[in-house]
Structure formats: C-alpha cells, structure tokens
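Recap from last week: sequence in, structure out.
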Amino acid sequence: MTSVSKELAFRANAGIKDILGQGLILDDNIAIIELIKNAKDASSPNVKLRFKDRTKSSPSELILKDFGDGMSIADISDKWLNIAYSEKKVANSERNKPFAGSKGVGRFSCDRLGKKLTLYTKASNGDFIKLPIEWALFETGMIDAEISTIKLEYEILPERAFLEEIGEASFKTGTVLKISNLRSNWDPKRIQKLKSELEKFISDPDSNFEVSIQINEDPEEIIANSVFEELSLRTYNILSSIDAAGKTLSTELRYHGEQVYSYEVENPYHHLKNIIVDIHYMNFSSKLFFKRRTGYPSNDYGSVFMYLNGFRISPFGNPKNDWLGLDQRKAQGTSRNLGTRDVIGQVSVVDSEDLFKPITSREGLVQDEPYRELTASDPEQKVQLRNGETDYGYVPHIIRQLERFIVEGLNWHTLMDLSNPERKNIPEKDVRADPTNFAIRTIDESAVKEAIDKTLRTSNFKIKSFKINEKIIAQLAQEADDAYNEYVLSFIQNTTDKTFEQLSSVDKGNFRKIAQRNMEAIKAEKEARLEAYAQRLRAEEAERRAEEERVRAEQAEKQEQDARAREATAAAARDVAIKQAKLEKTQREKVEARLRVTADENMFLRLDATKDHDHVLNLHHQTALYSSIAATDAENLKHILLDEDDFDRDEALEYLASIEESIEKISKFSNYATGGKYKVALKSVKGNLTKFVSEYLEDLKQNPSELRRINVVNSLSEASEFEAQFSPLDVMILVDNLISNAKRHGAKKIAFLPSQSKSGVFCIADNGTGLDASISDPSQIFQKGFTTRTEGSGRGLFHVANTLRAIDLEISVCDEPIDGWSGLALEVTRIAD
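Predicted structure tokens:
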C-alpha cells in the first residue's frame, strides 16, 4: 500500500488566554510588577498607579500610566497582540541597558487583574489610539474558537477626547491601561501589601525611574526603597561585585560604613559578570532599627533578595525561602553558622545576554550553569572554577566570609550574661526582665585578624591585592562598649510607645537601673582606686614601723608630712561633699524658681515630658568626660602624695580643686539623668534661643567653679533674636560642649558674639590652638566619632551640630578668623530653605 503524507499544524484555542493570564501569573502583585516592567522597557521615566473603588455608576478600576515610547497600530497588531512574541529578545543585545522582561506574556497580567481592559496609546507622530478588550469574549470553550478569530475593534480618537478619557492635560507619548471590574478586592491591607512588594521589587540603580501609587482621591505616594543604604551605617556588611567585563571580583567588609578589609581577585567563575552582592549581619540592635524604619520585623520582611535588571525575582528572599541553603546549613551548626534570620541583603544582576532566565510563571530562575555558579551551596554540588578547582557558588562564598568574621572574629554571641558568661542563645525576654545583667563581650583584636587571614588562606580565589584597616580593628573593642549603652537604651526605648509615666513599674525600674549604671560604674572605679591607695599606705606604714628604730628622726618628720597630707585630703573631701550637697540644693531651687516666673524670663514653664535615647547618650558622654578628667587628676595627686622627697602641697591642692570641679560637673549631669530635673529639662520650649544662651552663660559666670581655667565673654545681649522650639537641657549641654572643647584645645578665653552675616545667629571664638593642620575638611569636626585626641569620644561637637540641626540651625567653621581671636572661630546660622 502506498503511503500518503499530509500536513498538520498547531492551532491556538482562545482558551490559551486563561493559561497565559490567570493560570500562569499566580499573584496580583506580580501581575502589576510585570506591567511596570513593560513600562520601564518602553523607556518611560515614571509609572503612575491609581486604584478607584467601585461606585453605583462606575466599576472598580486600576489605571496604569506610563510615558514611554507608546505604540502605533502596527505595533499593536504585530507585537502587542502577537502572543509570546517579544522584540526585547532581539533588541537586548543592541541596548545599553537590558530589558526587564522578555517572555512576551506580561501583557496577559491585565486579564489576571480585571475582566475588562481599555488600552490607550500614543507613539511619536502617531495617532491617539483606543483599544477596548473584554476578556470574556475569549472564554467560549468551543473547539473551533481560535484566538485569532476573535476580532477587536480600535478607535482613533481626537486629541481632546483622548486626553479627557485618560485624565491628562497633555500626553506626548506613552500607554495607559484602564483595567476595570477588578477580580480582587483591593482593601487597605491588600494595598499595603502591594506597596511593600513594590518596595522590595523596585531596586533600580537608575534613580530617574519612579513609581507612584494613588488610592481614589488621596495624594500620590512615591514608592522608594532606601533601607539597605541606611543599614550600611548600622551593621557589619560585606559588599562584593564582579565587573561588567567579568574580569575582576572585588570584596569589601564594612563596619558601620567604615572599611575593615578589602581585596581584589581574578574572577574565578566562567559565566558571572555585572553582579553586586550586599549582605548585612542583623544583630539585636540592627533588628530594632529595621523594625522602626519599616514597621515590621526583619524576619517578616525577608532575607537575601535577588534582582535581575532592576526588578526582584520572586520568591527569592521571601520569609522561609532558603534559595541559598542558609537554614539547611545552620541546622547542622546553630552556634557557628548564619541563617536567613541572621542576614538580610540583595543580589543585583545586570544581564544583557539572557544568561539568567526567569521561569515563565515569574517564580524563580531556570537552574542552569550560570544559576549554579551564583547559588551552589551543597558541598556535593560545588561548581568548577576557571583554575580547575571546585568551590561554592559566588553568593554562598561571600556570605561564608561574613560568617567567619562574625562567628570567629567577633565571638558571634556578642551579648553576655554577667551571671553566666558561658551561656549562649540568650532570648530577648531574659534581657527585658533584667537588662543590667547583660553586657557586650570583649572583642579580641587578634581573633579578628586571624579570622580575616583564615578567610583568605582557605579560599580558592587568586588574590591580586589586599588591604586591612588596622585602626578600625583596634577600635572594635571600644566600639563594643559604646554599643552596649546604645543597645540597652534602644531596647528600653522600643519596649513601648508609652511615656515614662505610663510605663509599668518593672519597666520604670529597669530604666532607672540603666540610667544610673554609668554613675555606679564611676563610683565603683573610684572606690577601687581609693582602696588600692589605702592598701599601699598600709604597706608603707608597716615598712616604716620596721625601720623606726634605725631612722626614727627621719621617719618622724615624714610621718608628720604624711599626716598633714592625709588631713588635707580628708578636709578637701569633706569640702567636696558639702559643696556637692549645696550644688544639688542650688540646682533644685533654681529649677523650682524658674518654673514660677513668666515665660519671657524663664522658658521651662512650657515644657512637656519626654524621653529620648540621644539625650541619655549625651548625658552619658558628659559624665564620662568629667569622670575621666577626675580620674587623671586623682592619679596625678597620688604620685604627689607618694613622692616622699619632693612633696608639693600647693600642687596637690590644685589637683584637689580640679577633682572638685569634675565631681561638681558629674553631679550636675547625674541630677538631670536620675532626678526629676531630667524630665523637666528635656521638655520642649518655644522662645528666644540667643536670650536663653545668654542667660545660661550668666548663670555659669555666677558659679566660678563652672568656668575654672577659662574666662567667658558674653556679648549675646547685642545679638539678634531667634525664636525656636528647643530642649533647654540640649542647649545647656551644647554650651558646655563648646566651652569644654575650647579648654581642651588650650583656650584661656572664649567669647559668644553677635553674627555679622545675614543668616547668622551668633558666633563663638577662642584663643586656643585652633583647627588641627591635619584636617582638610573643617566640617569633619562635627561628625559623630571624629576626634584628634586619643582619649576623645568624638561626641561633643557632634552633639552641638545635631542639637542645632533639630532647631533648623547649622554650625560651621568661619572662613576667616574673627578680629581679636586667634583660635577656633565658629558661626551658627539659619539653614537655608
């Protein structure tokens, strides 16, 4: 029998619309993001989303507007209505920037979202086109209902009618999608989830691309995601990249934005290029900041997200999504491995060669060789490098470098139980029950360096260059002490939204304990030093008695001198105690008196109680400053008292006077920190700032011990008025910091003068050493942590600048010196609008 051959062909039933729309795109938020991708690929600078609720006369609507290239009739017929066709696949290699989408099915997102679509579009030099589509026309279910047999009618509108229907005054080019009879109920909770997803999905380095959302007649809201930029200043994070040519891999580990180490290697991977990996380690304080910034815990936000050509690839990074195998590995060693709850970050890939291929459902990527080079985390599935060795994928490899630094270099469990130092995995509820029982573990500088060295020695990467910041590593231990204070205060601040008076008795007790902790530590340190000194005296006394018979006359004279010195010390201590009691009484009476006078004479009448973390930190800074001065003077006094051959009584009394001054300062600030005055002084007042500063300077001049070794010139009565809302305590500390800074730089005289500039409020000048020659940018002196002194904390002038900024003022170093003053010259000016 002779064979017969005939031709057959595929036919596309109209039901394919359901498969590509509602069937393939499984999430409304992803559907909207697909439409945003199309708008971006059409070179639109921005996209506007607007939701309109259903009314009696109109259905619910979602309107998406872009201002990109738009389409002609030929574009609609040959491309937009051509299923699975995408000119982006062809054009990707011809563009400077790759397309965000390239499957040719994103247009069916409209079907996923609503039952009807009206498409408006205008290309350059093209017509004003309107194309309505009812998706129900494609849902016949008949065997011969091919999708190409269902005809769609379009209109060419007059410009005025077109603009009226899309709600725009003008429209050069672009596309508007009106999706009506929405299939989902977009209630406020669902809208908020969409905003959250848009924040996570839109991570475009091109800042000109903008997405906004509007609900009914509410104002437009710009969608932005800057949380990772802010995190870099508050965490340990590792930033790694492979350049666009795929030649060099660069990695940098940072602490609070400052480099710890960095290196460059030849890119060991075959396919990877144009990639940035940014991973942050989330300790307790970082998680608290994240919750304040975003409104929900970091664990609910997600972990390490992936972005391809500016848009997020779902579900990578979602809570409980372990695409990098972190939780699987953590289960094998909880105390030594980082899991998805410990890190957050993003992997950004710019791919113009289609090496990374999204799955058509928009859920993940095709797991081919480029994907494995990026993500391989299983020891049995390592990838082969260019040098023939095998290793983990790029992202797991970088995370392990951060992990080794955190776990081995920083001792992982940075919070320590003081009653049980070996305890690990401390729950938050235990810290809340008694915060004073916990502290930060000491960081071992050698352990940090060893962890870095081990990271590089065990890598299969060929190192080209390596840098390590010895200075920052040496400072990590000190930073840990500072972190404890910030941690505890942040913890208390975030336990409740109530005011201090509304806190429970337990929370009030914890807050008082923490506020008093620094003063107790200073007291304990002083007592320990006095006890050591007393023991030394007892030992010397015993030695003198043993030799008494041999050198009776000489020892008798020395004992008499020692007795006089001890009597002077005791008398001075009694005087200090009496003066401190008087000072506390004077301060209390002063506040009570000021509360009774008029608002013009005293600004404290209009204060409202508040509690602020930065205020307590600044009080801690002042207390630590004066306790350090007192400790140094006490050490010097000890040496004078122990100098048997050359005892100088006048010099000893001078050091006692200095100790007295420091103790008075400590008393002043501890009164504010632990007593009722702290709540009063932290209240906000509206009044004349220059007058308040002038009054406070006069108060200081009435108490000579406040201004020991420096003379203050107050000419602010001639300065112009500046009305502002401010905290009196902040301004008092501001003035004290300026005077203290001048004294520390050798000034014997400081002046507060009227400003001669138009925007100026007042100036400060001294006759000290002036600006250090090593400072190239004078504005550095106002940055947090900046200091030219080894014993400095860098908080004094930072507090000054921060306090002024809160009342719309700024401080800067004068371009020219002030006549008659040879030292540092500063000017306080209004912040320009």
